[in-house]
TrEMBL record, chain A:
Residues 38-327 form the Aromatic amino acid beta-eliminating lyase/threonine aldolase domain. The lineage of its organism: Eukaryota, Metazoa, Porifera, Demospongiae, Heteroscleromorpha. SUPFAM superfamilies: PLP-dependent transferases. GO terms for molecular function: L-allo-threonine aldolase activity. This is Probable low-specificity L-threonine aldolase 1.
UniProtKB/TrEMBL annotation, chain B:
InterPro entries: ArAA_b-elim_lyase/Thr_aldolase (IPR001597), Low_specificity_L-TA-like (IPR023603), PyrdxlP-dep_Trfase (IPR015424), PyrdxlP-dep_Trfase_major (IPR015421), PyrdxlP-dep_Trfase_small (IPR015422). GO terms for cellular component: cytosol. This is Probable low-specificity L-threonine aldolase 1. Its cofactor is pyridoxal 5'-phosphate.
Amino acid sequence: MEVSNGEEGMSMVVMGRYGVLYTKPRPKSAETSPRVIDMRSDTVTRPTEEMRVAMFEAEVGDDVFGEDPTVAELEKKAAELLGKEAGLFVASGTMGNLAAMMSHCWSRGEEVLAGDQSHVVLFEQGGAAQIGNFFLRTVRNLPDGTLDLEELRSKLQPEGKVAGDPHKTMTRLIVVENTHNMMGGRVIRPEYMDRLAELIRGLGIRIHVDGARLFNAATALGLPPAELVKHADSVTICLSKGLSAPAGSVLVGTAHFISRARRVRKSLGGGMRQVGVLAAPGIIALEKMSQRLEIDHNMAKFLGRGLVSMSDLGVDLDLEAVETNIVFFGLQRSDMTAEDFVARLEKEGVANGDRVIVKMLPARVASGEVKVRAVLNHHVTHQGVECALIRIREILANRGGRKRKQET
Amino acid sequence: MRSAMATAEVGDDVFGEDPSINELQERSAALLGKEAGLLTSSGTMSNLIATLAWSNHGDEIIMGTEAHMFWNESAGQAALGGVQTRLVPNDSQGRINPDDVAAAIRPSGNLHFPRTSMICLENTHNRCSGGVLTPEDTKSVGDVAHAAGVPVHLDGARIFNASVALEVPPAELARDVDDLSFCLSKSLSCPVGSVLVGSQDFIDNAKRWRKMLGGGMRQAGVLAAAGLVALDTMIDRLAEDHQHAKRLAAGLANIDGLTVDPESIQTNIVFFEVDEDLGTAADLIAALNRNGVLVSYPGKQSIRMVTHRHISPEDIEEALSRTSAAVRELRSAA
């Protein structure tokens, strides 16, 4: 396959098995529109040039018949990387988590324990109950993202203990989220997983890791991802977040579990056909994009340091808590809520002579306080963070009146 | 399509920001005379979303005895949607009788009875040999349903085959139904996906259900871009697939030991029966596979062949001669 890099602003031409691919030149107008610094999420990441070429070239087949070689390759690679037997490509992390929980809770009367601030509880629309037909019970998430082990211990209802008691659901699965989104992109360490595994040993209870951002955790710890999930019976990883593939996630587990999950996925409507076109960028995501996440973490710390320097303007942030690519900060202002701030930030402004639009999201945290969340991703460069900080300072310094919330 | 996918303008569709998806959804809705559209990952997902959107747990939905939603969607309507499926007979063309539908719709006010939440039609009809419902057929069921206040969902996986076979605009086939799904990944040849269309309210609701099922994809404009190419270039050519299917059926009818009525073939699907004295469908399929012909849907005695853009007229003749060979193999073995 021949690749020629055109000059700045010209088309790139690729010649391959399926003919010639011309990429569109960047339209002139793009150079004169404001620069968007989008920190709403890492899901906004667009596929790289290499991924686009891979989509063009992907070998495909009907995956419902098991005949798509590219998705088969992706599933195998993901499983190997995570130390599991088999993998299953799914349309989203939500589908991966739902299919996993449904595949573990195969009989009536079973329950899943998950963190009260976890994605499966807060942001998957109650699919566990509505679609999966099993009980989802919560355990408190501690600020470090872990599940409170003492509370967990007290809530366990292993089948061996409660089978004779028709009042009680049987605990079948515990879901751990790594990194933990709402607690601030926190990293769950292998030592914690060891203690959790020890707690449930011999009780017939399994562990599913919602590893939407598992590679961020692995990068932060400098460990292979398999090490973080060695006690997990199943794991979901997202390709479409920091890893920047256009869509999809991969669920991994034992071969038996995955064959069950494949059935569940079909019933949810996730049986896609020539899905190699999505799997091809997914492979690049796994192999290449997983290696650059440290940059996002450094950008997050850079943003965090800048925010901490604005504590006199009401910014409330514990820099120690910024472990990966997510930054949550509070605004102690009587004149401006987090929602106001985000709305003002999203209006076009000027920083370093450039027109910029900075995007973040408000988020209600466990305490009920609404904070601001910024998620670093490959589109947000050092310069982008600089501009964002300039805009933030401008907005916070601009408004008159009391800078700090009145202590009551 | 590969070019379009690789160069597609994309954005995060969960934020509604993927321009390729937005364009596909708008164009699909317009083509079918509906207000809005929604890209989903499969026809199964579209059909399940329709059930979830129209029904509550414990409702009853009505469809034909041969419906794909009943046979091949892993009982998702019951397992995940919490509804009971009530069947009424399909005729050989895939139609259901409006009188049967009227009789099956539950009267309200009786504690014993579930509520009828949705009637489902299928056009073209897969298990009925790709049979076509005309606008009149559709209206006759639609009228009965709407008179009782019940919405109609059309499983239009192959609606464009129907439109081309009848030479009517697809919007006419959609006029008397409340929502419709069509597949991008079948004869339209896109890699993945289905589009659900209906009123704005219905689609807003459908979006929630899609997310719950895990169908909220991000930069799926790469898939939508292929869909846009399909809407432009892959519909008219379906007429060729239909011609090939008719020729195939005529050829199969001439093979001793196989039964099919070539007159009944309207689109790109051919079901034929294997005479019992020859063997079972499974026996013939094994022989066909040995001869390099891949087919599907073995009923005990029935086999399905489907034509599409990778099957040329030469392939049809080749398939016929290899099928003859396979039949001869079976005969000599018997």
